[in-house]
Amino acid sequence: MTCKYSFILFFTGFILNISAQETIKVTGQVSDGDNPIPFANILISNTSVGFSADGDGNFELELPDESVTLIVQAIGFKTLRETLIPSEYQNTPLNFTLKPDLLGLEEVVVSATRNRLSKKKAPVIVTVLSPKLFKATQSISLADGLHYQPGVRVETNCQNCGFTQVRLNGLGGQYTQVLLNSRPVFSALNGVYGLEQIPVSIIDRVEVVRSGGSALFGSSAIAGTINIITKEPVNNSWEVTSNLGLIDGTTPDRSLNLNASIVSEDLSTGVTLYGMYRNRDAYDANDDGFSEITKLTNNSLGAKAFYRPNDNSKLGFDFTAIKEYRRGGDRIELAPQFTDITEELDHNTLFTGVDYDLFTNDRTTHLTAYASVQHTDRDSYYGGLGGGRTRADSTAANNAFGKTTDLAFVSGVKFTRNFKNNDVLTSGFEYQLNDTEDAIPGYNRIVDQNVNSVGLYSQYEWKPIERFTALIGARLDHIDVDGFYQIQDINRTSDVTQTVLSPRLTLLYNFTEDLQFRGGYARGFRAPQAFNEDLHISSVGGEQRFVILSDDLESEFSNAYTASLNYSKEFNKIQTSLLVEGFYTTLENPFTLVSTGTSLPNGSILEESRNGSGAYVAGTNIEFNLSPSKALLFQAGITWQRSIYDEDQVLFEADGTSPSETDVVTDQFVRSPNAYGFFTTNWTVSDSFNVDLTGSYTGTMLAPHVISDTGFIKLEETTDFMDVTAKLTYHLDLDEHLHVEFSGGVQNIFDSYQQNFDLGALRDSDYIYGPNRPRSFFFGIRFGDF
Amino acid sequence: MKKILLFLFLTCGSLAAQDREQINWLSWEELDSALATKPKKTFVFFHADWCAYCKKIDRVVFTKPEVIKKINTDYYAVRMDTETTDTIRFDGRTFTNRQALTKRNGVHDLALLLGSRPEKSFSLPVTIFFDEQFGIKQRVFEYYTSWELLKILEQ
């Protein structure tokens, strides 16, 4: 009977391509140190010659009589390379010891070079946020989950409307490019509230690239890119998730997510449908009747479908509709014009996209074409009685209604060619249009901006030797801005036509398999135009605060340098990795908001976006990962940085009427702490029980605070914050096709929250910083076939 | 309300499950003795929890009545989770999962033996078709539809 199963012989010692030249026979074993590893592959570098070990890890190689580099691979183990002289092993066995790969270092990422690449081989550091982390931190929207990456901070900047900004390496939201499936569909307007509008249930992962190193994605990605990759299903699945949060133990935040995918048996067609409902009440931290966290209702609905006519091509479609209502201020139950302060925004947004992928039969050449449209219709109300009860106040309050339309279109073609020597050429063309019209007739405010840009990019990935990769690229942008901006009696225009070449260079050098160096340079620029913060209106002293572009605003340029060392090492079964990254970015003519005080005829504050003095941000990101076993994973990151203007920068321009008020100047960026960080701990107690403990730290920083009715600001030094979340999850398999998950926990356990909010109708609504919510409790149930 | 819904899902789910015909999966030990008594063609399917395509085959292909009928009539069928840490006795030899001693998602020795390819990493799904003498006729290293599977099974 035993000889009958001689099939085993077929697979032992598979030998391929034995070369005819003079060879030396070498024998040995592949092991992990203790046990042999069966069926490892042993390849001779730069040839097509390969061998495989047998079931007991033993092998016999026929090697040329000269120095060779062998590549030893086995699934689940790190690839080993060893250069040796075969004649030295004619009489001694050649043994290889492979190290297991626990931390998923071989994970595949997209962002770094716009192709799929193993994370370790990517010349640019890409950090990946998984849905697991969004769940661990009880994130309902993308904005909540982004903290847990080194160098990333998300902060609410307005008590009235909940405007959030993501800050990478200390630079404001306008320096970061947000991409949806690698495409820049986020317009200047979406940048204001968009991060809160994307439900996490559709996200497969988020890839964060700090600094401009990789940025074929666009010249405005000065601080980095955030690439939201949505799910691509294989199986039919569905799930329903419902969460209830209680902010400060009282204010409810409810959400319901639905998600279902159908994929045909031959995988040629498929669709994912998703929907979200969220309803959060307004939260008032200091009982003054004015909100610190806005009321929010969001209904989103979407679908993503694909069709593969054959194995080498794919056509995709996606649609998302978002209806979001947010309101903050006081007396939320009344119509806005009867309140002291109301900011009310009703967004109706539609994203539609189509993409087409085409591969050649040998998969060396890949062509992608895509087009996406985003349209937003927005009704706004930024106003109120402002604490007064005169006829004029009432008239003003009744005229604060506004209307905004925003259209963004992006279309492009990308071509990738993989050469035989592993070099890769990527080239592409991209056209973008963004047309924003924002009108509030009562304030005589108009933003009418049309931005057209054409980008042409090319990049070459050069691997002259095994240890070294260079990514050399450039992007040529031709941008055309036609903008008209008006507030009361002031009007400005922007009429810019500019062609800019932005070169990029990134290097990767592997000192050893464990230690890698990366270095990069990127140039970036932004043409003068209204970005997210410039489209936001807040309130102070019972009046509105507007932003307008200054006359003769010139383009802003940046030079970003990064260098990093990445070390990963296993100590027996414990796996660790350490990343130390230094960054240095200089800004020329940075767009800087300067307050001119209550200089508008109606007593409102006007801030001008001006070219500030040169500036730099410099710092260090440190990220540490430790996985002692499968059940335990610990990650922590911290950033130390300085954000400095070359010359003292004016942030408030005094008009001289009050002798105690002079120009406010600083050499430091406001809202940019010198130290911040995060940690995440995941403990799988058993198959059904999971504990997550996560936290983010925000160091002290300067926050501008309007303290008099002329709009005079004081730069306040904030306290530091430690926002810790604990979550327990219990998983139950009711059936192979039905799973249930119960979860609960506390966000911001230590109630580390801003204590010194302004009070009442005259408050400075932008004076909000630190964690996005006080201590909150949450409960969730998730069920479905997932 | 949720509880009621849940209950409904459960009852409907389990009622439906009872009616379903299934492939008669054997263990390796059962296959060993079955082959000794009555030689027959053998069908072996390797899968793992994380393998989405395996799940798809399981749910879509192995539930088709014509596939179930064909396999149950003409084949012995074995399915194996490549990450199992069970000790398997087959053909007079003992196989264990030695990779699992040192790493996550370790692949069982028996799966490596049958499912490895030279110059390629071990990937899933792996499906192997044996003839009556337990000689390998064909190995498939990717997803297939029920009509593609039936075509191979007919050979």
From TrEMBL, chain A:
Keyword Cell wall biogenesis/degradation: no
Subcellular location per the Swiss-Prot or TrEMBL entry: Cell outer membrane
InterPro entries per record: Beta-barrel_TonB (IPR000531), Beta-barrel_TonB_sf (IPR036942), CarboxyPept-like_regulatory (IPR008969), Plug_dom (IPR012910), Plug_dom_sf (IPR037066), TonB-dep_rcpt-like (IPR039426)
Molecular-function GO terms, alphabetical: siderophore uptake transmembrane transporter activity
Domain TonB-dependent receptor plug: 119-225
Biological process according to GO: siderophore transmembrane transport
First and last residue of the signal peptide: 1-20
Keywords, alphabetical: Cell outer membrane, Membrane, Receptor, Signal, TonB box, Transmembrane, Transmembrane beta strand, Transport
Domain called TonB-dependent receptor-like beta-barrel: residue spans: 302-749
Membrane-topology annotation of the record: Multi-pass membrane protein
One cellular-component annotation, GO: cell outer membrane
Similarity annotation: Belongs to the TonB-dependent receptor family.
Protein name: Outer membrane receptor for ferrienterochelin and colicins
Organism: Leeuwenhoekiella polynyae
TrEMBL record, chain B:
Cleavable signal peptide: 1-17
A Pfam family matched in the record: Thioredoxin_7
Record keyword Signal present: yes
Keyword Signal among record annotations: yes
Keywords: Redox-active center, Signal
SUPFAM superfamilies (alphabetical): Thioredoxin-like
Gene3D superfamilies: Glutaredoxin
Coiled-coil parts of chain: none
PROSITE patterns hit by this protein: THIOREDOXIN_1
Name under which the protein is recorded: Thioredoxin-like protein
UniProt source species: Leeuwenhoekiella polynyae
Lineage, opening ranks: Bacteria, Pseudomonadati, Bacteroidota, Flavobacteriia, Flavobacteriales
